[in-house]
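$ run holo --ligand "zinc ion" --emit tokens
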Amino acid sequence: MSISLNSQTKKALVEILKFSLENPYSDFYRRKYAPLKLKHINEDNIGNIFVSLPLLTKDDLLASPPFDRIFTKIHSPYVISSTSGTTGKGPVIIFINTPSETAEGQLTWGKINAQCGLFLFPPGVQWQLLTTMIRAFPVYIGNPYQMKETAEIASRIKIDTIATTPTALQHFLIFLEPAYDISKIKHILFRGEPLSKAQQTFFRNKFPNAIFNLLYGMREAGQIGVQCDVLSMREEPIYHLRSDKFFIEILPAENEEAGELVLTHLRKDPTLLIRYRTGDLGWFLRDEKCSCELNFPLFKLFGRNRRETIHAGGVVFEAETFNVILKDFLENIQNNFEAHFYQRLIQDKIQYDIVVRVIPKGSVNEMLKIRLEESLNNRLRISNRFSFSELIRQDLFSPIKVEFADPDTQIYKMPLLYKLVSHF
Ligand SMILES: [Zn+2]
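-- output --
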């Protein structure tokens, strides 16, 4: 197997791979790639070699001590950041050189003409965003633990731009709306969580004059995608992917239409990622051209964050809670499933839907679907004391629906790493 690459990409990948293998600071990739016995890497064979490299996962990063994974001489200024930990696993610790992030700042704030901004994130989070924001205009750093006070100050200094998470903004609005004419808000930059369709509609009604700007990134990799003025008006999860910073693969690679986003650094970052599985799904919009001047490819994200746990409606769901019930049906379905989580706006309230996709063995029948749905809705437990059926009674969730997946679709050909998929 091989991939076709242009000469510039070949050159960059050869350089990065050599950098990783000959690295004086870390033997992480030397050890990882040792079984491949790689040698004589050059621009003629990189296409073959690259696709033979094993993928990198978050678990791989977790398994090695943070200081064993630094690939550059650490010099100031740099920052140590971390991902949030998942159940039973710690956070991944990441080292980032701050000067290299200035391009991100230009892309994020270059076009925004703000008078005064509010930065509203928990302490220690989104510091990269903050450092680039304060270079662009005056910024008030709000306190998400004191929303009332933050709203009063924000109204006195007449903010017109907000950088925050959708959840924080929902909460902040309770205090900001009575204190300030929120039609004065011109830009809202969402970061940290995806913005669901339901939230988008909700905020669109509240902020009629604001442009919403979504950033797509993850702590391990920093900024991955940006929205220009044109894309932010479309209000769909379409991004310019940072092809200057990453070599981007979509797996399964045979059909480059939809699949999982896999990233390789094109620059020598302290925390170097090579073929890193993001767990995020999407596809390139190859036939579309954006009218802005950015030369980055267009990518539409869907089913972000395939993972083992999902926070929805104040409750944490784990893949295992679904698995316990579904394994009773292994005579009828394959040992594989995905639970998709959605949000909907109903009047002024956000409701959650869950669709569980399973792959039937043999023919599809309606009775099996009903039995699966009944079992899931009646037996699913959130904790020892708490059952899912109570969440349905409280109107927070609608009853779980079951869908039979076609085993031949691309997505199911790919081994599933995570079984919960968030669509918000
Ligand atoms: Zn654009």
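-- notes --
The chain has two domains: 99-302, 306-422.
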